[in-house]
Amino acid sequence: MTLTQAEKAAVITIWSKVATQADAIGAESLERLFSSYPQTKTYFPHFDLSQGSVQLRGHGSKVMNAIGEAVKHIDDIRGALAKLSELHAYILRVDPVNFKLLSHCILCSVAARYPTEFTPEVHAAWDKFLSSVSSVLTEKYR
Amino acid sequence: MVLSGTDKTNVKGIFSKISSHAEEYGAETLERMFITYPQTKTYFPHFDLHHGSAQIKAHGKKVANALIEAVNHIDDISGALSKLSDLHAQKLRVDPVNFKLLGQCFLVVVAIHHPSALTPEVHASLDKFLCAVSAVLTAKYR
What we know:
Chain B: GO terms for molecular function: haptoglobin binding; heme binding; iron ion binding; organic acid binding; oxygen binding; oxygen carrier activity; peroxidase activity. Chain B: It comes from Struthio camelus australis. The complex is a heterodimer. Chain A is mostly helical. Chain A contains 7 helices and no strands. The longest helix of chain A is centred in the middle third of the chain and has 19 residues, at 54-72. By secondary structure, chain B is mainly alpha-helical. In chain B, helix 6 (97-113) packs antiparallel against helix 7 (120-138). The longest helix of chain B is centred in the middle third of the chain and has 19 residues, at 54-72. The two termini of chain B are 19 Å apart.
């Protein structure tokens, strides 16, 4: 699946807004993930998952930074996330189904904060972008 | 997801064994899919879906031949299946989840008829191949 020029532009534009609240959005997305899909907590036995926890905020930032990297290198997401891809393949081994769930939660957080900007077209572009990121992160599993 | 050299060898190997029965296996795959996953019948309201139906046989042949095309052009599956990809994107619009179901049934059929050939390694390669084919067929959906 490839992103069209229009889609890339839409992702870059919405990201410029999201970036200003990236950490908060990251933490919120993870909170949404753990409350709507409790099975995802299985990957974080070592975390304090209570609302506002330092670990949640730290991890939310990590996730959003990676997404920011992917936006910055939107023409070569694979290159930009190569190390993360290996990390997920050889060490983390997060079941691919969970990427859809996290993507969905990120989408909800972004939509909630930017209702007017999150038009159907921007929604589609952002969803496609997150799907691309997810594919890259699961590419080396086998 | 990229097919390794070994994957390609494994896929070609198993297909050389099944190619003489490809059409039969195609039909059996479809039958199994319609029975095990009845929701897939939604795409065939115009078909006689009884066991041994001429339409299932013909359609099984089509599916098998497309897979064989993909194997024959395993280094460029998206090129080989480009028209089929357009067809699925613009006309058929089969929900992507169903490709997994069809792939699963195909694996079962191969396993039943060629149990010793379908070693765990060959199984993995064949599954990867079927995922690659599905990815090509859904690549142009959006």
